[in-house]
Amino acid sequence: MADPLHIVGGGMAGAEAAWQAAQAGLDVVIHEMRPQTGTFAHRTDRLAEMVCSNSFRSDDDEQNAVGLLHWEMRAAGGLIMAMADENRLPAGGALAVDRDRFAEAVTARLLDHPKISLDRAEITSFPADGRWIFATGPLTSDALGQAIRAETGAEALAFFDAIAPIVHADSVDLTRAWFQSRYDKGETEEERTAYLNCPMDRDQYDAFIDALLAAEKTEFHEGETAGYFDGCLPIEVMAERGRETLRHGPMKPVGLTNPHAPDIKPHAVVQLRRDNALGTLYNIVGFQTKMKYGAQTSVFRMIPGLENAMFARLGGIHRNTFLNSPTLLDAELRLRSRPHIRFAGQITGVEGYVESAAMGLLAGRLAAAEHRGRSLPPVPATTATGALVAHITGGADARTFQPMNVNFGLFPPVEGLRAGRRGRRDRYKAYTDRAKADWTAWLAHG
């Protein structure tokens, strides 16, 4: 290859960036350190391996900002969305996938591409020349993390991501649990029954909260602080914020009717979402945790229906590194001090699989245009992709910068629409209609 584009990291962002650049005609080298250098969270050497949830969240492109981001990535010929669609599982109104088949499919498509090659080696320093995209994600290696800090002259910010446990479906007691998506959402019976629900009465809930608060937790190393991202709080941290917090969060009982006791409204409900195509594994929705393993099994088996649960994976916790992007990156995701280097994915300060892949998509397209001697216009801030990149490269306050999911609060308002909850449906539809038109126009520039 002559003058290829180098992409460091083979996660969601790196995979999408490679695909977009290769489809535009660039030679691409993906540098992925696994399996020679592993991480505690990854289990395989596949590209785009999902280490936390298997869900890309809502697929509603008219009333949900992440669903709109799905739409934009599909419109741009995104690999991540295409492979997610091919390997999707029933999940009500969400887009969930069989994580193993999804990663296998992404890996196969990338390695089959004539413009893409894979280098299984760790990159530990910043290159002096060439064209690079760093998409190393939340588990950036210590060596590369040191290089980033040395180059930026700033301490990398960090928070802790907690991983939810996965349960073997055949160990769930279906005389107590039942299948139902919240509010029966979904167009098919399979979609409407995509979740397993475990009900709790008030006494069971109170006992569960007591056990959760008393359980032995993972300790942090000296000098580390637990600055959690609010979208991925461990359940015990949520419980510490108030005994009712979980009832109004992942354990809310609304939109569900227990067929085993239809006249009794549960005080709280634990939901499990299908995790693979066979339907043999379910993850406990929203149950990220830093409890020690022994505590997890005893506490989670207090949940009605999970008394004899067998766990395919217990929860865990890991450090997540990201840049103070408002001060370090320009509007094209380039490092201001070294413009030949772009960043993409979670390391830029976006949160979530979809947001990470979207930043990879954008970085790959920008790199391809630059290689052709062209300059693309700024992505409209009225689009989901544009709203995210505007936020991380200047819209956020650098002094308090924290990882961000896409949400309509990042979008410029549409004038003349009713504010408040009652006007929300019309307002969100206006946001998504405007975004689709503006994104389509932006894609036309190449």
Automatic annotation (TrEMBL):
Residues 5-374 form the MnmG N-terminal domain. Pfam families: GIDA. GO terms for biological process: tRNA methylation; tRNA wobble uridine modification. It catalyses: uridine(54) in tRNA + (6R)-5,10-methylene-5,6,7,8-tetrahydrofolate + NADPH + H(+) = 5-methyluridine(54) in tRNA + (6S)-5,6,7,8-tetrahydrofolate + NADP(+); uridine(54) in tRNA + (6R)-5,10-methylene-5,6,7,8-tetrahydrofolate + NADH + H(+) = 5-methyluridine(54) in tRNA + (6S)-5,6,7,8-tetrahydrofolate + NAD(+). Its EC number is 2.1.1.74. Its main location: cytoplasm. Belongs to the MnmG family. TrmFO subfamily. This is Methylenetetrahydrofolate--tRNA-(uracil-5-)-methyltransferase TrmFO. It comes from Rhodovulum strictum.
